[in-house]
Amino acid sequence: MKKSRYFLGGKLTPSDPRGRLKRFMREIFAYTPFVRMVILLFTLWMLFAWGIYIAEGDVEGSSLRNYGAALYWGVAAFSTAGIADAPQSGAAQFIGGLWIVVGSVLFFGTIVATVTTYFMRPMQRPYKQIIDTIEYNLEQLDDLTIEELDLLRDTVDTLIENVEELKEKQLSQNSRE
Questions:
Q1: Domain range spanning residue 139?
Q2: What pTM, to 2 d.p., does this model score?
Q3: Does residue 1 belong to any structural domain of this protein?
Q4: For a tag site, which of 13, 49, 87, 169 has the least CB within 10 Å?
């Protein structure tokens, strides 16, 4: 059996593209507004399609006489594909126009919010603040008093101990998977 560079002892390694994709998706769902926004977008699509159906259901010559056609219209109009028949009644045109604006803002807003949140998240992590503080103190070593140097040493020692404990926990969790 050929060994893959992504497997080590039957386990996926961090460089495995599937592992990275899995972690990426988990972080997107956990730390960004993506899921909430998709649920909101879906709910609004259903409601706006229902409004179009109610407003167009009895209009002579309308192609939007059933809920399925209204749902299709909602997707086609919102996606700017330009293949949707225009509603005939004034109320349906208003509802449809509102859907296009609201749906587009939510859709593109979700994309921007998700990407922004995902890439800004590392800057919000506590370890970034800890590292920045340590780097600042290292730059100021010449100006620190003996007491401050002792405190810095103790802090770094404690940090190293905690890092080692965390690494051991993660290794034991990974070995159980």
A1: 125-177
A2: 0.55
A3: no
A4: 169
